[in-house]
Amino acid sequence: MQLFYNPNISKSATSFVFDKEESKHIIKVLRKKEGDILYVTNGLGFLFITEITIASDNKCTIKINTFEKQDEPKFNLHLAVAPTKMNERYEWFLEKATEIGVQEITPIICEHSERKVIKTDRFQKILESAMKQSLHYYIPKLNEAIAFKDFIKTKKQGQLFIAHCEEMNKKSFKSELKTNGNVTVLIGPEGDFSVKEIQLALEHNFIPVSLGQTRLRTETAAIVACHSVAFKNED
Question: Distance (Å, rounded) from C-alpha 3 to C-alpha 132?
Fold first, then answer.
């Protein structure tokens, strides 16, 4: 099944017109024609089964035959991950985390961060593409980048974890993790969190955890945390 994405389709709609760019892709590139079935999600859990009524490369029009709604995940995972020095590594993390099933992502700017300018427009496109490829009907929420100290002070619910490499008392992430709830995990930059940042997190009730016996790259640690939460919540 090929999945299309448009956030503007609502469950009350009976028809929809794609914009010029998407219409051209559907008609000219994919060579779709009138009567062809398109599967479309709005990223909010809905799958719309539609049929092309006007095969125009300017205004491809579809009628919505039916729709279904995917159950919401039993857990809510929020990954707060420092940007990597090489942008493509962070983009890889965004893609894979979306495939696995993350619900929210926040880039956090830390003391040791080498990259502090974030272009979320490109990140958003990567999330959309990964959602369609993996046939998810929920798109992760991507927040604007925020300083670590400001993120820590924001109100959060559920289990709070900080994964770091400092030699101090840490617990096993897989042992501490509970199912069916909200989980927030902090992942630092290549130079790790500073001791000051770790202490600040502890003061705000974050639990220091280890993700394994080896030293992981930022993007790898984020994927390990993401998969651990998803695997823990499998039926």
Answer: 5
135 residue type, one letter:
L
Per-residue pLDDT at 48: 97
Cβ contact 76:86 at 8 Å: no
Question: Which amino acid belongs to residue 6?
Answer: N
- Cβ–Cβ contacts within 10 Å for residue 192, how many? 20
- Helices 120-133 & 87-100, crossing angle to 10 degrees? 40
List pLDDT tens digits, range 49-97: 999 999 999 999 999 999 999 998 889 999 999 999 999 999 999 999 9
Phi-psi region of 95 (alpha: psi -120 to 50; beta: other; left: phi over 0): alpha
Tokens 């010029």 belong to: 20
Name the residue among 48, 54, 55, 6 with its Cα closest to residue 30.
Answer: 55
In single-letter form, the type of residue at position 46 comes to F
Global pTM reads 0.92
User: Tens digit of pLDDT for each residue in 182-201?
Assistant: 999 999 999 999 999 999 99
Structural contact between residues 81 and 105, judged by C-beta atoms closer than 8 angstroms: yes
Question: What is the distance in angstroms between the CA of the first residue and the CA of the last residue of the chain?
Answer: 25
- Lookup: tokens for 89: 């590594």
Structure tokens at 51: 């049929």
**Phi/psi at 42 (5° precision):** -100, 5
